[in-house]
Structures are given as C-alpha cells and as structure tokens.
Design a protein that fits this description.
flat; single chain; mainly alpha
Length: 256
C-alpha cells in the first residue's frame, strides 16, 4: 500500500495507518505554530524544522516496506514544506544567510526590540526597483518564467487538443494577458525600465509565450508612457521615497 492511500484513507481496520496519519497531521500543525508566534526567529526556525522532520519521518514509516515509495514521499514532503517556507517565511537559513522570496523575510535576524533597518530615515530604500517594497525585481521576474511557462503549456495543450476547452485553459490564457499588460502598464507608469531591467527573464518569458507576453507588455508600456496612472495611495508611491520627490510628481519626469 502506498502512502497516498494510507494518508487519504486512514481506518481503524488499519491501526498503524491511522497512527501515522495522526502523527503527520500533528507535525504539520507544529510547522504552523511559529507563524502565530512573536518569539525570535531562531526559536521559530527550530519549531518549524522540527515539524518538517517529523512529517518526513512519519511519511517514510507509513510507506514501508516499500522502500522506494518511502524515500520518495519523505523527500517530497521536505521539498514541499521547504518550498512553502521559501515563499512565506524566513525559516531557510544556511551559512548565516536567509533565503526567502520576500524582502522582509530576507532581512538579517534582529532582536525583538531592535528597530528595523533605516528606521527614522525617510529616504531609506535599499531596493528602489522592488515591487511595492515586497519583492525584488530579479526574484519577481524569475518567478514569472516558470509561471508563464505553465500558462503557455496549458494554452498550447488546449489549442492542439480536439476536446472541449476547460476553465483552466481559459484562466491560463487570461493570466498571460492580464499579467503582461498589468506589469507593462505599472512599470511604465512609474518610469521604470522595461521589466525593471531584468532583460534575461523578459526574453525568456517572451520566448516561452510565443512572443505574446512581449507584445502585450510593450503595448501596455507604450500606452502608460502616454497615459500613466500614478496614484498616491499606491504601495509603490508609499514605499519608494524617490517616487514622492517633487521632480517625480510629473508623469514626464524620469525616475532617479
């Protein structure tokens, strides 16, 4: 019996499978505890990775005696939880460096009573090309590459298939259109360079989408040069000091 069946169908007729199911669920709960804690990051990491190890161990035991399946599900569980940790937490720390998708999570650890970097400095902005001060431009555009590749795969599959189009295919096509036009218009409105200077990722995304992303992005970029939209309630305006300076109030003024 594989682990999928064990986890999906725990039963009292198979006591060991029920025990493993409950143990895995308990360990998953443990991984969530740090998300609601205000204790220091070191403690949060210890709790999170303890839960991850527990999930891996019990997934491994649940799949025995099928060693291949046991190793696969253990590695998969660690990989999945690590993937989630990268995008949502600061818990991946290797060699003193934190690996995280968001800027706040990537910041070095500090004491609970220690002020954040740049506190009191209205011009502090270590990532002036970041998206809303949350994600750096390189990370955002590297994420765009597999994201648009997946959308393109769904659209291409739908086009060559003789079957009925599903809502997933429509959603994938819509995602390409909305994201390309949205990012193009936003980047241009705030006077950033095309793709905020991420040329390699921009070219890759264009190739993966058969040029459609490039066409939509550049069209929206050109439109925003003529009719920009720069509301002061925008997170871009609020987070980046250089956008609030008098010489950037005008849509025609270049960004610093």
């Amino acid at each position: 019996m594989n682990v999928v069946a064990i986890v999906a169908q725990p039963a009292f007729s198979r006591p060991h499978s029920l025990v493993y199911f409950l143990a895995i669920a308990a360990c998953l709960v443990v991984t969530c505890i740090p998300l609601f804690s205000r204790r220091d990051r070191r403690w949060q990491r210890w709790v999170f990775w303890s839960g991850v190890c527990g999930v891996a161990v019990f997934c491994f035991l649940a799949a025995l005696p099928q060693w291949g399946t046991a190793i696969f599900v253990a590695v998969f569980s660690v990989g999945y939880l690590s993937f989630s940790a990268y995008f949502a937490t600061p818990y991946i720390k290797i060699g003193g460096r934190i690996y995280a998708f968001h800027i706040d999570d990537s910041e070095p650890d500090r004491a609970p009573d220690e002020p954040p970097p740049g506190a009191g400095d209205p011009d502090y902005d270590p990532y002036p090309d970041s998206y809303a001060g949350s994600v750096t431009a390189p990370k955002m555009w590297w994420l765009m590459v597999p994201g648009m590749a997946l959308c393109s795969f769904n659209v291409a599959t739908a086009l060559v298939s003789a079957g009925k189009r599903s809502w997933v295919d429509v959603a994938a096509a819509a995602a390409v259109v909305v994201i390309a036009a949205g990012f193009g218009y936003m980047d241009s409105s705030w006077r950033y360079r095309i793709a905020r200077g991420q040329t390699v990722q921009f070219v890759l995304v264009g190739v993966l989408t058969g040029g459609m992303f490039t066409l939509l992005y550049l069209t929206a970029y050109r439109i925003a040069q003529r009719w920009p939209f720069r509301p002061k309630i925008s997170s871009e305006y609020i987070v980046h000091p250089h956008l609030r300076k008098p010489d950037t109030e005008s849509p025609q003024a270049p960004l610093e």
